[in-house]
Specification:
The structure holds two protein chains of two kinds. Helices cover 17% and strands 29% of the residues of chain A. By secondary structure, chain A is an alpha/beta fold. The longest helix of chain A has 13 residues. The mean pLDDT of chain A is 95. Chain B is an alpha+beta fold. The chains are: A alpha/beta, B alpha+beta.
Chain lengths: 281, 382
C-alpha cells in the first residue's frame, strides 16, 4: 500500500502535432489536404479515419483518402460544411494540425481478393473509397473487375476529376458517374447513383460491394446489390455518426449495439439490416 | 500458517468506528463517504466518523426524495446517494490540455489533476457492481482511459451490505445486491442489535492490511446469524422488480414501438437520469481559446444521450424526437450494453427513478415494453 502512486499513462485523446504540406482545391467547397505523418511508423487501412484537431476549434472525424502504399503522407479530403471544416480547409502549407488515428476497421480489401469489386459512392463518400482504388491498382492481379458507381449533386461537385478520367482508361476498370442536376453542358448520366446499377452486369457470386454515402443512398444501393444476387455478407457500408473520441469511450457514435468508431465504420449489410431501416437509431 | 496470517474477518464496535478513519488516514487515504448536504445524503470528503450521516432515513419514490430523522443511530442509512461514485473516478468536468501555438509551433501541456489515494466508505453493493461495469468500459478495451485507470488504482473500496432497500431499488432483480460478494477491499455489515457493531470482511490484501490495524474481535456465531438475517430481510423488502429473462431481445424488438411517443409526452429530456446513473459514461470534448487565439483548452465534460446535440452530424441530429432519445437510453442500459460490454448497463440502484422530475420508472417501462413484445409474438403465432 505504500507502493508508488499509479502514474497516468499516455492519453489516447492527446493529438500528435503534424504539418500541412499541400492543399488542393477539388471543387467550390471541397479541398484535399496533405499532412506529414505523426511518425515514420504511421500506416493506415483503406476506410480508416483520423480525428483531426484544428487548433482552438475542435476535433473532426475525417476519412483518410490517400494511398495506403505511400504512408509517407496523410491525405484527407474535406467538404467545408460547418465552422470546424471551414477552418480545416483554410489551413495553409506549414500550418500545424493535431492528429489522432488512424481509427476504425476499414474496407475488407483482403476478403475481396480474387473477386470483382463494385464501389458505390455518393458525394464526398468517394473520399474513403479512393484508398480501395489505390490498393486494387497496386495489386491489380489479385482482383477481378473494378467498378465505380459515383453520384454527385452536379458536374461542379465532382471530385478527383483527373483521376476519374485516368482510371476509366485502365483495363478491367469501369467508372460510371451520374449527377442529380446536369445543366446544359452535361452530356453524362443524370439521376441517383442507384440508377447506374442497370448499366452494369454483375457476377453476383464473385462480387464484393462497398458503399459510402448518405445513409438513405447506402440502404438503396445495398438493396440493388441484393436484387442482383450479391450476398448480404458481401455488401459493405461505411456508417456515419457523431464522433468525439474515435476510440469507443465517448458514447456518441452508437448505432444499435455498435460503436461506429471502433466496431466500424465499415459494416456488412447483414449486420446493419436490422437497424438501418429503423428511424432515429 | 493459518494462525499467523492476518485476520480475514472481525467485529468492530460502533463506538470504535473512528479507528477505521484513523487507520485509513494514517495510510494516506482521503475518505469519501455519505454525509448530509442540502437535505440529502451525498458522498464527499469526510474528516471524522462523526460527520457520517448517522440517524437519518431516506424516503424514495418515483420523482420524490425526503430525508427524515430516525430514532436509531444507524450509520449507513442511505441506499444509493444522489451522487454516484463515478464523479470521483470520472469527474463531471476536467481540463485535459492547454495548447499554445507560437509561430506554428504547438505545445501541448497536460492539465489532468494528480491522482489522490482515496477510500470510498459506504459503497452499496449496487454501486460496487456499477464500478465494476465502468472498469470494463474504461480499462477493459484496446483503448483505456488513463485518468480513470489511475484514479481507480488509487481507490480503496469499503462496501456496506444493504439491509434496507429503498422503494425505488431493484438490485435484487439485476443480480447486484442487496449483499456484496466480491469486488471490495473491505465489506461491512452493520448490526444494530443487541450491541451496535460492524461485521467486517476483507476482500483484498489492502483490505486485510487495514483490518489488521483495527481493534476487532473474532466474529461469533451470533454475528454471522445476525448478518444472514439482515440479508434475508433485505431480500424481502424490494418493491420493484425487472424480469431480465430475454430482456435484450424484448427491448430490441420494440425499436419502432409507438410506446416511445407515450414516454416522450412525459419525458423532459432533462438528462437527470444519465447524470445520476452510476454506469452512464458518455462525455463530450469541448475546445475553447483565449481572446488572443494563442492558447486553447480541451475540456472533457459529462454528456447525455438526451441532448439534441448528442447525435448531431452534418445535416441535423439523428435522434430528433425525445422518444428516440429515451429509447436510446433505456435500450442501451438493458440491451445493447450486453453486446458492448458483456454485462447489463443497469445495476438496479433506482437513482433514475427517484431523481426523474417526471417520475418515469425504468422498471415500469421495461415491463411495458416486454409485455408489448410478448403480446406481438403471441399474436404472430396465432
Amino acid at each position: 500500500m505504500l507502493a508508488e502512486m499509479p502514474v497516468i499513462s499516455r492519453d489516447p485523446m492527446q493529438p500528435a502535432g503534424c504539418r500541412v504540406t499541400h492543399v488542393k482545391k477539388e471543387t467550390h467547397d471541397t479541398w484535399t489536404l496533405d499532412v506529414t505523418p505523426p511518425d515514420k511508423h504511421w500506416r493506415f487501412q483503406p476506410g480508416q479515419f483520423s480525428m483531426l484537431y484544428v487548433f482552438g476549434v475542435g476535433e473532426l472525424p475525417i476519412s483518410i483518402s490517400g494511398d495506403p502504399q505511400h504512408p509517407s503522407k496523410q491525405t484527407y479530403t474535406v467538404r467545408a460544411v460547418g465552422m470546424a471544416t471551414r477552418r480545416l480547409v483554410s489551413l495553409k502549407p506549414k500550418d500545424w494540425l493535431g492528429v489522432r488515428g488512424p481509427f476504425g476497421n476499414g474496407w475488407p480489401v483482403e476478403q475481396a481478393r480474387g473477386k470483382d469489386v463494385v464501389l458505390v459512392a455518393g458525394g464526398i463518400g468517394l473520399a474513403p473509397l479512393r484508398p480501395v482504388i489505390y490498393h486494387i491498382l497496386a495489386h491489380r492481379a489479385d482482383y477481378g473487375r473494378l467498378i465505380l458507381l459515383y453520384g454527385a449533386r452536379s458536374p461542379r461537385d465532382i471530385i478527383y476529376t483527373a483521376e476519374l478520367k485516368a482510371w476509366a482508361k485502365l483495363p478491367q476498370t469501369e467508372i460510371l458517374t451520374t449527377v442529380d442536376y446536369g445543366g446544359l453542358s452535361w452530356r453524362g448520366n443524370v439521376g441517383v447513383v442507384t440508377s447506374l446499377f442497370r448499366r452494369i452486369a454483375l457476377n453476383p457470386l464473385r462480387t464484393v460491394g462497398m458503399i459510402c454515402g448518405p445513409e438513405i443512398m447506402m440502404s438503396y444501393a445495398a438493396r440493388e446489390f441484393e436484387q442482383k444476387g450479391v450476398s448480404r455478407h458481401d455488401i459493405y457500408l461505411s456508417m456515419e455518426r457523431n464522433m468525439k473520441c474515435g476510440i469507443g469511450l465517448c458514447g456518441h457514435c452508437q448505432h444499435g449495439p455498435n460503436f461506429v468508431c471502433k466496431d466500424g465504420p465499415v459494416f456488412t449489410y447483414s449486420s446493419l439490416e436490422r437497424w438501418i431501416y429503423k428511424r432515429e437509431i | 500458517m493459518r494462525a499467523s496470517s492476518p485476520p480475514r474477518e472481525g467485529v468492530l464496535p460502533r463506538s470504535r468506528l473512528s479507528a477505521l478513519f484513523q487507520a485509513l488516514q494514517e495510510w494516506g487515504y482521503e475518505i469519501i463517504g455519505p454525509q448530509i448536504r442540502d437535505q440529502a445524503i451525498v458522498y464527499d470528503v469526510l474528516d471524522r466518523a462523526e460527520d457520517l450521516a448517522a440517524g437519518y432515513r431516506e424516503e424514495h419514490a418515483p420523482g420524490r426524495y425526503r430525508l427524515t430523522p430516525r430514532a436509531q443511530q444507524k450509520v449507513f442509512a442511505s441506499t444509493a446517494s444522489i451522487h454516484a461514485w463515478k464523479r470521483f473516478l470520472y469527474p463531471p468536468e476536467i481540463k485535459l490540455y492547454q495548447i499554445s501555438l507560437n509561430s506554428s509551433q504547438a505545445q501541448i501541456e497536460s492539465l489532468a489533476t494528480p491522482v489522490r489515494k482515496r477510500a470510498f466508505l459506504g459503497v452499496r453493493p449496487c454501486d460496487l457492481h456499477a464500478i465494476a461495469v465502468q472498469d470494463r468500459i474504461f480499462t477493459g478495451g484496446v483503448y483505456r482511459d488513463p485518468y480513470y485507470e489511475a484514479n481507480r488504482a488509487a481507490t480503496l473500496l469499503i462496501a456496506v451490505n444493504c439491509d434496507e432497500p429503498g422503494a425505488t431499488c431493484f438490485c435484487g432483480s439485476m443480480g447486484s445486491g442487496p449483499s456484496a460478494t466480491h469486488g471490495f477491499d473491505l465489506l461491512l455489515t452493520e448490526i444494530l442489535e443487541p450491541e451496535h457493531r460492524f461485521l467486517i470482511e476483507s476482500g483484498s490484501a489492502a483490505g486485510e492490511a487495514i483490518l489488521s490495524r483495527l481493534p476487532v474481535t473474532p466474529p461469533q456465531e451470533e454475528d454471522r446469524t445476525a448478518a444472514q438475517d439482515l440479508h434475508r430481510q433485505a431480500c424481502q423488502k424490494f418493491q420493484r422488480f425487472v424480469d431480465t429473462n430475454e430482456l435484450r431481445e424484448l427491448m430490441y424488438a420494440q425499436a419502432e414501438s409507438e410506446h416511445w411517443e407515450k414516454v416522450a409526452r412525459r419525458c423532459f429530456a432533462c438528462a437527470n437520469c444519465t447524470q445520476v446513473c452510476p454506469t452512464c459514461f458518455c462525455v463530450n470534448f469541448e475546445d475553447s481559446s483565449d481572446v488572443s487565439g494563442a492558447t486553447a483548452q480541451r475540456w472533457r465534460r459529462w454528456d447525455s444521450c438526451f441532448h439534441l446535440s448528442f447525435s448531431y452530424i452534418h445535416g441535423g441530429s439523428v435522434r430528433t424526437s425525445v422518444g428516440a432519445r429515451y429509447r436510446q437510453w433505456i435500450t442501451h442500459k438493458l440491451a445493447s450494453w450486453w453486446d458492448q460490454f458483456g454485462t447489463s448497463g443497469c445495476v438496479g440502484c433506482g437513482r433514475c427513478v427517484t431523481w426523474c422530475p417526471a417520475a418515469i420508472d425504468i422498471t415500469a417501462e421495461a415491463k411495458a415494453l416486454g409485455t408489448l413484445t410478448r403480446s406481438e409474438r403471441a399474436h404472430a403465432s396465432t
